[in-house]
Amino acid sequence: MSVAIPLPVTLPSDDSAAVDALARMLHAPSARLVGPDGTEVALPAEVHDVLLQVVEAMQHGQAITVAAHSTRLTTSQAAELLGISRPTLVKLLERNEIPFEKSSRHRRVRLDDVIAYREQRRVARRDLLDEMTRHAVEDDLYDVDAADYTDALEVARKAGPAE
Fold first, then answer.
1. Residue ranges in 40-145 assigned as alpha helix (H)
2. 77 and 113 in contact (C-beta within 8 Å)?
3. pTM (predicted TM-score)
């Protein structure tokens, strides 16, 4: 059984020159690590890709967390990752939209389940936006000014859902 662990967060480096140099090195076709004793090891592609993502995020001033997908999160951590409140997350859990485990009084959510839910929501939002765009094109609303669009939207709301 996994135990919820606090996810370590690494803040962006104050030494942007070193981070930039590391980014340039990682963009080379075959980066290598050199140990304290001078031993060199070629970076496996997967490790290289992770390091590159970390360095690029730090270049953009973003904090970093690296965690295994099987990591168990508290409801607060999961809510923060999704950008929602903890009570909203609890409602999602209670509606079985995200799997969770409950040990005694505390709910735990797997990181990979939270990521999967976030991706499902992203795809659903994209699909809805695509559908709305298609309807707008079909209704010739792209050539309408804002006031006319607002009027058309008001008419559509009063008409109710399309069948």
1. 45-59, 75-82, 86-94, 111-138
2. no
3. 0.56
Q: Which helix (H) or strand (E) holds 109?
A: strand 106-110
Q: Are 101 and 72 spatial neighbours (Cβ–Cβ below 8 Å)?
A: yes
Q: Which of 24, 23, 43 is nearest to 33 (CA)?
A: 43
**Three-class SS state of 141:** coil
CA-CA-CA-CA torsion for 142, 148, 153, 156, nearest 10 degrees? -100
Q: What is the pLDDT of residues 134-151, one digit of tens each?
A: 888 887 767 767 787 788
pLDDT at 4: 44
The interaxial angle of helices 86-94 and 75-82, nearest 10 deg, is 100
How far is C-alpha 49 from the geometric centre of its chain's CA atoms? 17
Cβ atoms within 10 Å of 92's Cβ, excluding its own: 19
**Residue 140 — φ and ψ, nearest 5°?**
55, 40
Cβ(155)–Cβ(139) under 8 Å?
no
Distance, CA of 83 to CA of 40 (rounded, Å): 41
Environment class of residue 36 by beta-carbon count within 10 Å: exposed (0-12), middle (13-18) or buried (19+)? exposed
Report the candidate in 115, 122, 75 with the shortest Cα–Cα distance to residue 94.
75
Taking the C-alpha atoms of residue 91 and residue 97, their distance in angstroms, rounded to an integer, is 9
